[in-house]
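Backbone-to-sequence.
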């Protein structure tokens, strides 16, 4: 058994090194220095991917088959603790996921990660592996405020880490994206603080994954104001919908059935945005494997709604 495991490891390692040597140079050349990072689909405007958090129970081949059948360009893959690939297995398992997707003409458009600390030994290993496999973007882990301390001083403390991580991204030809997430203690929830934190950092090194659901939950009718403010930093757009439950708490719902303003997509188009759009379906329990068929049906319906919204821009 030990020999079998060692042989499997050696095979995966050789496969990884082969892919590394084949595409490492190309991954560095496609990184841009302004606005949005280059799309690995070339000139295709707004490639659409889907966050595959509900599909941890599927094999990589099954996952690729189902996503290809739905008609997406790629996936937003959770490569983090509890995701498709655990960080400590990234060198062995991530090439296998990329290979399964490539067989169906799919890509990892965004890699969702646990990365937010450039000094963490896992950070360089995860980013280097992603870069050598041709992945262009990764979503960062959140920073959370201690509300017993000064918010502004915490932003000042995080900024050097962000700049160091941005430099690492630049060297690898990667773009880190930070998602605005609604909540009482998230950096980025009100968006103005994220603009402060990313000051003097090129959006091609660390940009914003702009989430219209969370921006609406936090900003209400004023979302166009904060969108205007953060727009130069936007690399990627996240799409999902919600309603206010009993007037107090947000509850996720199918796209088009909630509070998201459909005019957002016209506003987005008017900026010339050409980056990826990631669809998130989060109104079904992602922890139950038996719900996979329902997730697939829900995502298919949400994708049809998204395409309608984009067509009416």
């Amino acid at each position: 058994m030990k020999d079998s495991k060692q042989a499997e490891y050696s095979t995966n390692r050789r496969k990884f090194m082969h892919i590394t040597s084949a595409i490492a140079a190309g991954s560095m050349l496609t990184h841009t220095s302004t606005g949005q990072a280059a799309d690995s689909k070339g000139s295709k405007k707004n490639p659409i991917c889907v966050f595959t958090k509900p599909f941890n129970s599927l094999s990589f081949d099954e996952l690729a088959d189902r996503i290809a059948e739905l008609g997406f360009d790629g996936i937003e893959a959770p490569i983090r603790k509890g995701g498709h690939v655990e960080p400590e297995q990234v060198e062995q398992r991530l090439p296998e996921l990329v290979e399964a997707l490539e067989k169906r003409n799919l890509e990892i458009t965004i890699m969702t990660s646990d990365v937010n600390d450039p000094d963490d030994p896992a950070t360089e290993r995860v980013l280097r592996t992603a870069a050598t496999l041709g992945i262009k973007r990764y979503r960062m882990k959140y920073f959370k405020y201690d509300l017993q301390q000064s918010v502004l001083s915490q932003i000042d403390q995080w900024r050097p880490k962000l700049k160091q991580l941005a430099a690492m991204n630049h060297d690898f030809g990667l773009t880190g994206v930070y998602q605005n997430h609604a909540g009482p203690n998230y950096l980025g929830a009100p968006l103005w603080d994220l603009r402060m934190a990313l000051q003097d950092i090129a959006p091609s090194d660390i940009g914003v994954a702009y989430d219209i659901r969370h921006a609406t939950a936090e900003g209400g009718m004023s979302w166009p104001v904060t969108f205007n403010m953060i727009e130069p930093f936007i690399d990627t757009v996240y799409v999902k919908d919600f309603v206010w439950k009993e007037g107090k708490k947000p509850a996720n719902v199918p796209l088009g059935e909630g509070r998201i303003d459909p005019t957002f997509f016209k506003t987005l188009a008017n900026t010339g945005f050409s980056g990826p759009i990631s669809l998130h379906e989060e109104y079904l329990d992602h922890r139950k494997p038996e719900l996979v068929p329902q997730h697939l049906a829900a995502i298919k319906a949400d994708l049809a709604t998204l395409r309608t919204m984009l067509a009416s821009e």
